[in-house]
Amino acid sequence: MNPFRYERASDASTALAMLAQAPEGAFLGGGTNLVDLMKLGVAKPELLIDISHLPYDRVELLADGSVRIGAAVRNSDLAADRTICTRYPLLAQALLAGASGQLRNLATTGGNLLQRTRCVYFQDVSKPCNKREPGSGCPAREGYHRNLAIFGASEACVATHPSDMAVAMVALDAMVRVLGPSGERSIPLVHFHRLPGDEPQRDTVLDHGELITAVDLPSLAFATRSHYRKVRDRASYAFALVSVAAAIDVVDGMVRDVRIAFGGVAHVPWRATKAESVLRGAPATEEIFRQAADAELADAQPLRDNAFKVPLARNTLVRTLLDLTQEENR
Amino acid sequence: MAQKSTAHRSSNPIPLPGKISVGMTVNGIETKAEIAPWVTLLDLLRDHLDLTGTKKGCDHGQCGACTVLLDGRRVNSCLALAVAQQDSQIVTIEGLAENLADGETLPPLQRSFIKHDAFQCGYCTPGQICSAVGMLREAEAGWPSAVSADLNADHVTLDDDEIRERMSGNLCRCAAYANIVPAIAEVLPIRSPDAERRSGSGVYPERSEWVGDRNKEVE
Fold first, then answer.
1. Does residue B193 have a pLDDT over 50?
2. In which domain, by residue range, is A29 found?
3. From the list B38, B169, B217, which residue is nearest A102 (CB)?
């Protein structure tokens, strides 16, 4: 690891002031990704500002029925939270599908959103990578990419966002609450991560000096009927090849409303708005589910070795919707 | 460590950050150390406190060999910076064999690993055992897993699939899994929801408040 300074922030304004004076500084939450990237030489902050003790460690049910998740809430606590398990089972399932018991005990909600891609070239400083070293090139396009993006990639970058949690949250229309030098702002999670374009070094729309304080989940009554399904190379403790987060509201055999997002397919947690449009107001049948999946996947631009993700994503979505609606009809 | 290699670069124009004093309780003993910010909890334990029971495997949070209990919860000590652990309670494999019943030299979980031959080379074993201790607490607190049928069940029944899923953060390159699972299953305080809880089993240090019991938080 490169040498760096360490400070523990006693409150948010101190943390912001510290980072404002350190252009190469970074906030430290659980550290499960950042410390690893520092060991690999990928991240080289001059200053770590420990924000893990700031008072953002609660899951609160707000008066309007929405749920506020503090940025410092550990992934393990969030997955076991009664409010989350009852109201948003897909989120608890997504969290439990990610990492290991040990990592979930350290990893935080804010940090999970900000974790970097696990593309092998990004994590290997002996290789070019436009995300790590802008302009150095992208070996993944021609090289190892079976786990990388089929949607929204650019010439510069074909990386995927690795989070499971964010996929469930983006399906739930989550809002990211952010504190910065000029005050607070709230960013829809669907616009929080960005496609790589010609600036793949920027994963999110956050500015340097901004701090995530919470994630808000709007009330969504039908999310009680929801599921997160993850497909991976191992039965446990592996990143998604493809995952689906879905919540569906079926009345008299017709889809009244639906939320769908894919993981493992893009530089962002991928909200499947085209599939949702096909489903709203249509009969809840396997035929329609296939049409919805095809509508979304028509935009897929797979690479040489990840074309298998297209039928995998289609089948995973159809199976998830069938499981949810057959349960409903029981 | 970078600390040693850079300290010898006398021509380095950039002054190195100073060492930081950190105090924590390790296996019940109050401990103070002066360390550089980049020393991990794992390296503090092994290189500064001579607690070499905790093993360095991958050093990247992928293998679980470095698992210790941090404020009662299992964590990868290779990814935890030591300076960030001020006032915390650390329990390592060396600390698990305390507060034993008369005549016992090892807690039940360790005896069960020996009885079931739940290792071959033994390198992953301290991490496996610390992880299992943390895992049993999580299950007792009602935490679900990725294979739990009901996220909202009041009690977790740890069948073999549950044990495998919950222990997936600990790799064993000798592949002793087939014996690790029954070794853990044998010491379960609750094997079924109907069974009475065994109290004071000595499976792990009695600090259950460290893992939030979700059943106590229902409003």
1. no
2. 5-50
3. B169
- Residue pair A98/A105 in contact by the 8 Å Cβ criterion: no
pLDDT, chain B, mean: 86
Tell me the ipTM for this assembly: 0.96
Q: Among A279-283, B2-6, B89-93, B199-203, which is the least confidently predicted range? A: B199-203
pLDDT at position B38 is 97
Give the residue from B31, B61, B95 where a domain finishes: B95
Residue pair A249/A223 in contact (Cβ under 8 Å)? The answer is no
B120: containing domain: 108-214
- Nearest residue of A to residue B141, measured between CA atoms: A80
At a CB cut-off of 8 Å and minimum separation 6, what does B139 contact? B156, B158, B162, B166, B190
pLDDT per residue as tens digits for the range A262-283: 999 999 999 999 999 999 999 9
- Indicate the Cα dihedral angle A262, A266, A271, A274, nearest 10°: -90
Query: Rounded distance, CA A321 to CA A325, Å?
Result: 6
User: What is the rounded distance in angstroms from the CA atom of residue B143 to the CA atom of residue B210?
Assistant: 13
Counting one residue from chain A and one from chain B, the pairs whose CB atoms sit within 8 A come to 127
State the nearest Cα–Cα gap between B29 and chain A, in angstroms.
23
